[in-house]
Request: fold
Amino acid sequence: MRVPGDDEIRRLHERCAPTPEAFALVYAHCAIVCAVAEQLMARRDDVDAALVRAGCLLHDLGVYRLFTASGELDHARYIRHGVLGHEMLAELGFAETLCRFCSRHTGVGLTAADVRDQGLPLPPGDYLAETPEERLVMYADKFHTKTRPPAFVAPETAAASLHRFGPAKVAAFTALRADFGDPDLPALQAHYGHALV
Ligand SMILES: [Fe+2]
Reply:
C-alpha cells in the first residue's frame, strides 16, 4: 500500500479546502493531532508510524464538504464528516486502510446501535477504530478541538464530554487512556499557543 507523505497530504488539503480560512482551521488541527500522536507513539513500537501520521493528517478531510456558502460549518450534519472524508479518499484512489481513518475516528467509536438510537445521519453500520493505528488516531483527536479559537482538550475534559453518551463511551475512553497514556499537552500548548480547556 502506498502511504502519502506530509507534503502530498498538505497539497490535498489545499485542493479540497473551500477557503483559506477553512484550510487554516482544518489543516492546523490535523497537524496538531499528528503531533499528539507522535508523542504517544514515542512510548511504544507496535504501531506503523508513517500510517499513523497519514491517518492523523487525513482524518478530517471530510470537514471541507461541510462548510456552507457563507463559510460556516454545518454543525447539524457535522457527524457526517467521517464518512464524507472516507468517500473523498476512495474517489481519489487511496487504499481502504487510509479511507478508514476518516470514518473510524468519531468520538470513541460509533456502533450501529448508536447510529440507530441517536438517529444519526449516517448509513447503518459500525464505525469503530479496530487497528492500533486507527485507535491511536481516534484517541489523539480527542485532545484538540477546532472551536474558534481552537484549543487543546485535557483528558479530564474529554472524558467529561463523553458522559452524555453513556458509561460505555466513558469506559472506552478510559481504556484508550490506559493503553496509550496521556499526552504532554503543555508542551504542545507552548508550541502552538492554543488554550487548554
Ligand atoms: Fe479531528
Notes: The chain has a mean pLDDT of 96. Residues 29, 33, 59-60, 141 surround fe (ii) ion (CB under 6 Å). Residues 162 and 170 are 6 Å apart (CA to CA). The radius of gyration is 16 Å.
